[in-house]
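Working notes for the structural subgroup meeting. M.R. asked for a predicted model of this chain before we commit to crystallization trials. I am recording the input and output together here so anyone reviewing the notebook later can reproduce the run.

Input as submitted:
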Amino acid sequence: MQNAPVIEISGLNKWFGDQHVLKGIDLNVLPSDVVVIIGSSGSGKSTLLRCVNYLESYDEGEINVSGQTVTGDDKFINALRTKVGMVFQHFNLFPHMSVLGNVMEGPTQVRKMKKKKAADLAEYYLEKVGMEEFLDAYPQNLSGGQKQRVAIARSLAMEPEVMLFDEPTSALDPELVGEVLGVMRKLAEDGMTMMVVTHEMGFAREVADSVAFMDEGVILEQGTPQRIFDEPQMPRTQEFLGQIL
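Returned structure, recorded in token form:
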């Protein structure tokens, strides 16, 4: 079962009221793969990502993570979120906690880890994202890029099987984008399984194993970065890439 998908999405449908936002989505993510989802705003990319760890419920179809069906059962959701890390557009750090405290919070509160072990783990992951010099700093004293790197370390400290990134650089000043993408690139090199929603096409082309183009709630096409960027088949994909590349 080495190559069984970590994430299996089949026939996924989601409505917000009478708005059909996800329309029969099928998508698999294999171990150590980086799947990048691109498309214009409002195409359903973030909603799809949020359904994977049940931040949004879904109406039809099925999502499996590591062979288990994602459901709304509270106990299951808590277990799911220890396996599936998520990094958001906005960093959601606790302002009253230091960098170290923010990263320790999940391991101590959710995984019931002793503080010394949690601190060691937090320091390890903060070093991984290049933030080891800021252990005692508070979020208000950090740049946007630094906050996002702490947010990534916080997710990694839960030692998840897969990481979801929902436009992690879109709230950053342009000169800070590179430091966050650099951390994500390193995670990919280390074999982390990742689903990434992003407008950073250079990152998608360079790091993704597979790129999925979404439009109006549908995955219009999916393939290697080379095929999607250099030989898009669908007129809508061609139009989208023509506008942004």
